[in-house]
Amino acid sequence: MTGRRKIILLLAAGFFTLVAVYFAPHDTGPYHNWHSLSHWARSYGEGLDDAPEASDAIRELGTNAVAPFLRWIQYRQSPGKAKRIAVFNSAITTLDAVFGQTPGGSWCVCDTDEDHAFYVTRAFPALSPEAVAAAVPELSRLLAATPPNGDFTIPSRAIDALSGMGEIGIAPIVGALLSTNRDIRLYASMHLETILAVPKYVRRV
Predict the structure, then answer these.
(1) Taking 80 as the threshold, does the pLDDT of residue 55 lie above it?
(2) Per-residue pLDDT at 21
(3) What is the pTM of this model?
(4) 188 CB neighbour count, 10 Å cutoff
(5) What is the DSSP string of 90-123?
C-alpha cells in the first residue's frame, strides 16, 4: 500500500469517526444497571436479545423515564441537519467511487435522533403503571396540538405510543378522530381498527 493511499484511508477513517460522533444521540437519560435509558429504549424498541432486560430496566426507572421519553419523541429534524446529512452522504458516494463499496454495501449517514425517536415510541408500553399514568396527559396534549406546517410527525408518534399503553391510551386516540388535521384523523382511525380487534377493548371504545 502506497503512502498516499494510507493517508487517504486514514482521512476516510477519521471522517467516518467524526460522522459517528456528530450524529450520535447525546441525551442519554438516567441510568439503570450500568446502561442509560436511551440504551434500554433502543434495545426494547428494536426487539434485541436483551429486550426482556430492557423492559425490566425501563419499568424499574419508573416516572424518571417519562420526561426523557416525552422529550425524545418530540424530535423534529431541522432543515440545516438535513442538509448536513446530504453533504456527508455525498462525500461517502465520492469515497465509494474512489475505493469501491465495502462488501456489505455502501455506507450511509442517517439521522440517529430520528431513529431514536422511533424506538422510544415503541418502548412506551414498557413503562411502569405510574409512569404510564404520568405520560398520558402530555401525549394527549401532543396529539391535540396543531402541527406546524401540517407536519403530523409528533402527533403520529403520540398515537403510536398511546396505542401500546392499553386501556388508558384509548380515549385520547378516539378524541383524535375530531382533529382538524386529516392525516391525524386517518392515523387515529387505523390504530383504533387494531384496538377494536382486541375483544377486551371493544366495550371501552
Answers:
(1) yes
(2) 43
(3) 0.76
(4) 26
(5) HHHHHHHHHH--BTTB------HHHHHHHHHHHH
